[in-house]
Amino acid sequence: MDLIWWIAYIALGGVVGLMAGLLGIGGGGIMVPILTSLFLLQGVPHEHLAHLALGTSMAAIVPASISSLLSHHRRKAVRWEIVRYIAPGILIGTFCATFIAALLPTRGLAIFFACFMLLMSLQMLANIKPKPTRSLPGPMGLGGAGLGIGGISALVAIGGGSMTVPFLTWCNVKLPNAIGTSAAVGLPIALAGALGYIVNGIGIDGLPGASLGFVYLPALILMAPFSILMAPIGARLAHRLPVVYLKRIFAVLLMVLSLQMVYTVFTA
């Protein structure tokens, strides 16, 4: 792999970590579109572009999820009784959704990804927050919520925070606990998603030689440490910079990257 790709993956990992620490937002929205373009330039066949980008992104989220979980656990912000019941649904939904993703064409995945990111961007721009209007459901209800959150997370390579936090807030969970609990369920999402994309990509022809299923190992190895390194810096900057305005800029960036991904897969 040429030096230019090393630099590109390191830079991407750093940007993703910085944004995660600064805005509390997972990196899938940035990683997937940019990885799609990088893989295309590296000669990955068109039909594998989105799958390899999604799988690599899910794997890259694993170390960041562990770091985030431990941080929130130390602050006693994780509601483990919620994690206990929502995690099985998360695991099943995420893992099974990777099999659906493997059956979908690259263009279909790109359209779904772009639509979800556009909706998430609009929610960020409008600063829409659900009002707490109900109590937490029972174990079956939490498991069902986990299925949905995990399934969508696997198809767009996110840690689930954009769905888990609003859901828990709606169910009268205090915001710090909702964020901490979301960080905890982000780990099973990342693990199940990465495993599913590995399983579904094994034996597929046309993938880069250093791939493990739909996970491109050089990109993962280069992105992960710099993402972890930059996240604390982003967290410190969050106390000094106008985060509200930065979120709006980030929302616009997500829109642009999502549309760029669609353009890339339809013109490749």
Automatic annotation (TrEMBL):
It is found in: Cell membrane; Membrane. Keywords: Cell membrane, Membrane, Transmembrane, Transmembrane helix. InterPro entries: TM_pro_TauE-like (IPR002781). The keyword Manganese does not apply. The chain crosses the membrane at residues 7-36, 48-70, 82-103, 109-128, 140-158, 178-199, 211-233, 245-266. Pfam families: TauE. It is a multi-pass membrane protein. It comes from the Bacteria. Belongs to the 4-toluene sulfonate uptake permease (TSUP) (TC 2.A.102) family. This is Probable membrane transporter protein. It comes from Halomonas dongshanensis.
